Amino acid sequence: MSIIDLFLIGVSLSMDAFAVSVCKGLSVCQMKVKHMLICGLYFGGFQMLMPLLGYLLGTQFSGLIESFGHWIAFLLLAVIGINMIRESSESCDITDDCFSPGAMLPLAVATSIDALAVGVSFAALGVSILPAVTLIGLTTFLLSGLGVKIGNVFGMKYRSTAERVGGVILILMGVKILLQGLGVL
User: Fold this and answer.
1) Which of left, alpha, beta for 183 (phi over 0: left; psi -120 to 50: alpha)?
2) What interhelical angle do 3-27 and 69-87 show, nearest 10?
3) What is the pLDDT along the chain (185 residues), one digit of tens a residue?
4) Contact between residue 117 and residue 54 where contact means Cβ atoms under 8 Å apart
C-alpha cells in the first residue's frame, strides 16, 4: 500500500473526528489553541491506537485470512464508507463546550471504532503498521485541530460534505484493494 493510499485512508478515517471537532468548535465561545490541541491529541491518539489494536488482532488470524484479505479489506472499507455517507445527513448533537477527559474520551473512542476494522484489514494485507498508524494519527491530529477552528469560524456548513467525501474515498480504496487482490490492477 502506497503512502498516498495510507494518507487517503487517514483522511477518510479522520472525517468523523473532524466532524465532532467542528461541533466542539461551534460550542466554544472564545476559541483557544488548547481547544485545538486537546481535540487533536484525543482524536489523533485514538485513531493511531485503534488500527494498531485491529492489526494485532488481525495478525492472530492472518493464516486464516491471508488468501482472501483483499475481500476482507474491501468489505470493511465499503461498510465503513457507506456508514459515513449515511451518517453525513445526521445532525450534530454535540453542543457542550467541555474538553475534559470525561467528555473527550467517549468521543475519541466513538470516532475511532472504524479504525479498528481498518487495522484488521491492514493485517490481512500485510501493511507495515507503524508508518501507517503514525500517518493516520498525525493526519487526524491536524484535521481535528483544524476542525475546532473551522467549527468556531464557519459553523456546520462543511460537516456533512466532509463525511460524505471521506466515505466515498474509503469505498474507492476498498474497490482498489479488491481489484489489486483479484489481479485486475
Assistant:
1) left
2) 20
3) 789 999 999 998 898 788 888 878 877 778 899 999 999 999 999 999 999 999 998 888 766 666 666 777 678 767 777 876 776 676 655 445 678 898 888 888 888 888 888 898 898 888 999 999 999 999 999 999 999 998 888 755 666 676 677 677 768 777 887 887 788 87
4) yes
Q: DSSP string of the chain?
A: --HHHHHHHHHHHHHHHHHHHHHHHHH-SS--HHHHHHHHHHHHHHHHHHHHHHHHHHHHTHHHHGGGHHHHHHHHHHHHHHHHHHHTTS---------SHHHHHHHHHHHHHHHHHHHHHHHHHT--HHHHHHHHHHHHHHHHHHHHHHHHHHGGGGHHHHHHHHHHHHHHHHHHHHHHHTT--
Locus of grid cell 495478525: 59
Radius of gyration of the chain (CA): 16
Domains and CATH numbers, the chain: 3-181 (1.20.1250)
Q: Which amino acid is at 8?
A: L
